[in-house]
Amino acid sequence: CTGRMGLEVVKAVLNSEDFALVGGATRADSPMAGRDLGLLAGTGQTIGISALTDVKQLFKKADAVIDFTIPALTVQLAEAAAEHGKLLISGTTGLTEAQHKALKQAA
Questions:
Q1: Cβ(21)–Cβ(10) under 8 Å?
Q2: Radius of gyration for the chain, computed over Cα atoms and rounded to the nearest angstrom
Q3: Which of 31, 50, 72, 83 registers the highest number of CB atoms within 10 A of its CB?
Q4: What span, in angstroms and rounded, lies between the C-alpha atoms of 9 and 98?
Q5: CB-count exposure of residue 18 (10 Å: 0-12, 13-18, 19+)
């Protein structure tokens, strides 16, 4: 959630009356890991939700996870969503035919 699109999603959810932000994730080696998502999104305020490094933790908290990552991670997220009975909304592009097939199997 710390890339350009991820931070836009964070801002949109924070500004929504219909949705609640319960978490966000980033790479384990990211300097953004552990930082407050409100500050990262440029709100100027802490919200008490830090960027996680274990994306599977998101599925324990959320009804749905919004994904704007890389194709390989999208497949892992789809498998985690299926495992936890949660929704995955993905805007990831550039998937191979095999990755599309893996997403369909997880759906």
A1: yes
A2: 14
A3: 50
A4: 27
A5: exposed
Confidence of residue 56 (pLDDT cuts 50, 70, 90): confident
Q: How confident is the model at residue 1 (pLDDT cuts 50, 70, 90)?
A: confident
Q: What is the DSSP letter of 35?
A: S
For 57, phi and psi rounded to 5 degrees?
Answer: -65, -30
Whether residue 55 has pLDDT greater than 90:
no
Residue 61 CB: number of other CB atoms within 10 A?
Answer: 12
Q: Is the pLDDT of residue 2 over 90?
A: no
Structure-token match 């350009």, residue found: 4
The Cβ of residue 40 has, within 10 Å, a number of other Cβ atoms equal to 21
pLDDT greater than 90 at residue 3: no
Backbone angles phi, psi at 17, to 5 degrees: -90, -15
Q: What is the length of the chain?
A: 107
Contact assessment for residue 37 and residue 24, using Cβ atoms and an 8 Å cutoff? yes
pLDDT of residue 9: 94
